[in-house]
Each structure stands twice: as structure tokens, then as C-alpha cells.
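Go through the following before class.
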Amino acid sequence: MTFCDVVMTVLLAVGGLGAWQGASPLAGPVDRARQPTLAASAVAEGLPVARAPQDPRLVMEVDTTLLNVGDPVAVRLRVDHAEGWTVQWPDSFDISPFEVLRQEVAAPAPAPSGEGMRSAAALIVTSFELGELEIPPIEVAVAAPDGTVHTLLTDPFRIGVQSVGLDESGDIRDIKGPLSVARNWWAVVPWVLLAAALAAGGYQLLRRMRSRPATEAPRPAPPARPFHVVAIEALDELEASSLLERGQVKAYHIRISEIIRAYVEGQLEVPALEMTTREVVRGLRRASLGGAITESLRSFLDRCDLVKFAKLRPGADESRELMPVARSLVAMTSGAESGVQ
């Protein structure tokens, strides 16, 4: 069991994520009109909060304000709401520059106060960037029994991410001299005998194989499926998936880039899966594909890299525009344009 699994199990085990008490809320609810929220300072000072008892309330709690790069940190979200209301947790939380390692949602349970219900979720997040970073506002939708949807937002939360320092407290040690190896020739004898036995066995096996009559040559394996057919089937499967509908734009761009890179590697014999986009372009130029095709492939891979590495988040419609481009690239380079849909 990994460290993240242990932390998540503990978070879900303590009160079913519904009995988090003793920690100050670090963020409060904000609807689309940016109404006042119940912040951590108001709770600490005991100030009254003017809100209707039935209004949903979102609170975020973070374990720490300082962590080492790559270390996991727990983020807990809870929504107190009236009975009959439904919290619509997102399928994935986009909190860049932080990355969500794991997320769990607990079933609604009665609130500790005895009034209404409490829905909760727990995230294990980390960051591989250094500096004073900020968890952006997290949006959570709450649906009333009449179908009205209220959108709640947490306040941003700043966390310092530091590098793991080196231990410079010790003195530099002197260089040790070479170790002497004791020579025990009797320990070598068994290995020599084993090597001789293997050599003799190999010689006898070779003589038997040469003395056997020639047999019919094995039939060649059937040819593999054409690379462009495999690529088109993979694109069809991606287009039929629900990645964009579920907001997984980054996963969509990574997958469509992998399909085209694998096709280029098989069809054009350019190892694109192990290359950067710039290296792929150089390989395509050496293959003498022509400037138009090379430029189209470069533009396609650049668009995918912006989403994968530069954290660009285009909309679903803009992301779907990559699909006809990918199909066109396969058709232009497969030599079977008429058979590619």
C-alpha cells in the first residue's frame, strides 16, 4: 500500500469524512454573485454569519501551508446542505499548478450539528513546481430538490513548495584506496568445471542438430495489419469516448498525439514515440515526405504539446477539431487515401 493510499484510507475512515472537527475551515462558499462567505477568521473569532440555515455551505481544509516538492498533501472538501439536496462533485479537479494524485467521495451523512446533511470529498495532491503556489478556487455544484443548481466556490489557498535540501553538515571524507581481493583458486575450480560441462553439452547438441535431415522450411508469418488501419481504428475509438464530455481535455490530447506518433513510427519508420516534436520533424525531413506534410505534422504535434506541457486548456469544440486533422495526416501518408475515411 502506498503512502497516498494510507492517507486516503485514514481520511475516509475518520467519521466517514463527515466528522472533521477541530480544524479551522480554510475556505468558504462563494456563489456566482460572489456573496459573502464564512471564512476561517470568522470561525476563529466567533463572529455571527448571516445566512439562511438551508443555504448550502462549502468548506475546504488543507493539511499544510509548506511542503517539499513531490510530497503528497491532503485537501478535504465538505458541503453542509439541507436534506434532499444533491452535491454534484466533478469527475476531475483541475487545480493547476497542483496535480491530483487521488480523489475519493464519501456518501452523504447527517451533519454533526444534527441539522441537515454533510457531503464530503478528499483529495491527495502534490506539485512538482517550486515557489509560492496557489490552489485555485474549486467549483462545486449543489442541486436543490426543485432542480435549481447553486454553484459554490472555495477561496484560493497559498502553499509554499520547496526543494529537498542536501545534507551539508558532514565533513568531506577521504578517498578510500582500492580493496584487495583475496585469491582462492579452489573456489574457481567448480566454475571452470561447470563451464567445461556446458561447452561439451553445447557441442553434442550442435552435432545432433547437424545430423538431422533437413525439414520443411517454416511458413512465414502472415503480414501485420496495415498501420493506417490500426491508426484509424484507434481514432474511431477515441472519438467515441466520453473524455471531452467529462472535461478530460489533457487526456484527450495525449491519446490523439500517441496514436499519430505510433502511426508515424510504424508507417514512416521514424521513432516518434521516443522523440520530441522537434526531433520528429527532423526525422520526417530526412524521410523526404515533402514540406506540406512535414509542416502539417509539426503543427498538429505542437497543438498537442501545448495542452500536455504548457497547461493550455481549450474547449471541447476546439479539441474536436484535431480529429479531422489527424485523419487527414494518416490519409496523406498511408498511400491508401481512397480507403481512409
